[in-house]
Design a protein that fits this description.
Blueprint: E1 4-7, E2 10-13, E3 18-24, E4 33-39, E5 46-51, E6 57-59, E7 67-72, E8 77-82, E9 91-98, E10 111-114, E11 118-123
Parallel strand pairs: 2-11
Antiparallel strand pairs: 1-3, 3-8, 4-5, 4-9, 5-6, 7-8, 9-10, 9-11
């Protein structure tokens, strides 16, 4: 099973930016879809963004216009650029790999490899 490792989280102020990175243990971009999810304390894990093998990407409404997901094939890395961060973006962010169909991209059960998560804290 593919292992995923996230990095780039931290403590920032509202309005700041962060770039998260996800590196899989194998080159999976040609065969897998990679998504970002987040989970705040006491809340369910929620979809943030996804990028398909074709590089088509989709975003949660809360991320549209502020976040951007991208692949850097040469470095076998998926990035999540997060701009204009808000306190409500505070959560543990996870990257995940799977083969969901378009209608199921927001369902965490459709992804079968997950990283350990990276904490993002946005202060007001």
């Amino acid at each position: 099973q593919v292992q995923l490792a996230e990095s780039g989280g931290g403590l920032v102020q509202a309005g700041d930016s962060l770039r998260l990175s996800c590196v899989p243990s194998a080159n999976i971009f040609s065969s897998h879809t990679v998504g970002w999810f987040r989970q705040a304390p006491g809340k369910e894990r929620e979809f943030v963004a996804v990028i398909f093998r074709s590089t088509h990407s989709y975003y949660a409404d809360s991320a549209k216009g502020r976040f951007a997901i991208s692949k850097e094939n040469r470095k076998n890395t998926v990035h999540l650029q997060m701009d204009t961060l808000k306190p409500e973006d505070t959560a543990v962010y996870y990257c995940a790999a799977g083969r969901p169909i378009l209608s199921a991209i927001r369902n965490p059960d459709m992804y079968y490899s997950w990283g350990q998560g990276t904490q993002v804290t946005v202060s007001s």
